[in-house]
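Entry for the shared binder. Reason: the reviewer on the internal report wants the predicted structure included alongside the sequence.
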Amino acid sequence: MIKKFLKHCSDKKYQKNNEQINTLKLLVKFFNQNNKSLINQFFFRNKNKLGFYLYGEVGVGKTMLLDFFFNCLNVPKLRMHFNEFMIAFHDFRHENTDSDKNNSIENFVKNLKKKADLIYLDEFQVTNIVDAMILGKLFEIIFKENIKIIITTNIKIDDLYRDGLQRDQFLPFINTIKKFSIQHELLIDQDYRKLEDSKLERFFYPSNERTSFHVSQIFRKITKEKKKKTKSIIIKGRTFKIINYYEGIARFSFDELCSVNIGAEDYIGISETCNFITIDNVPNFNDENEDKQQRFIILIDILYEKKIPIMINADFNYKNFSSSERLSKTFKRTISRLYELTSPKFI
């Protein structure tokens, strides 16, 4: 697999990096020790680790590396963004209201087991008390069913959901993931998304009449031959309307997307309807608008996952964005992704 990875890097014109190669070797070792004979699994199960928890700063190649590893494996497998994984769980619970709620986690995992022996969760993060309380039991049963998990995240295990509401109820998950997982940091002192410093042709600042006019000019140009209509998206009985919609190209204000009570399910619905998005008047962030910043982080994660290029009109240069204290580390990933999503190469 290492030779194949080196060829992959060469074909994609990625720089060869020894830390990535060493991490891939650990992943191969992790997978192989979990695919011994049934007899060996029976006698050595307690020694085996069923999770590989890969963390590191933004832009070091975590997702690229795990995508490559995942695609090389010939086993029943699932790849999901963490937000999509939790939505799938809550949907399963909602759709199986007739069954015993106490068994909903067990039933969900049994359903997973029918589909996959390996689950890859990208961009793992815990932001709300509901998920925090569920994850401990959920992962305990996943590992009990001998399902392997590989994870990418920016945050080491002990720092997950730090300062979150009722964090003591999240500690069982931390204990479970540490017990059953290999934790490894991919440590590279650069952001690979920014190695080729191209002009950001779709990121405009500050938000004023001049930049708004410029963005409008571009938007009119790319929608010139397209018909405008209001697009309605139905999400669990709720209707979200896209007013400025031109056959897959949409324009929103920041407030339309992040100042209202919507979330990951809505953003996934938008990403499945749009192939290019403009967002106007993105503000700077602080502790007072942390809830809006959290929605913006989730939105950009999903647009990045779905490969939707964007155009931004913001109050600040992407390099000068501030953050709420609690989300400052996670927001570094958002800034890096903004850089890439607005790059001329990302279209």
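Summary line for the report: The radius of gyration is 21 Å.
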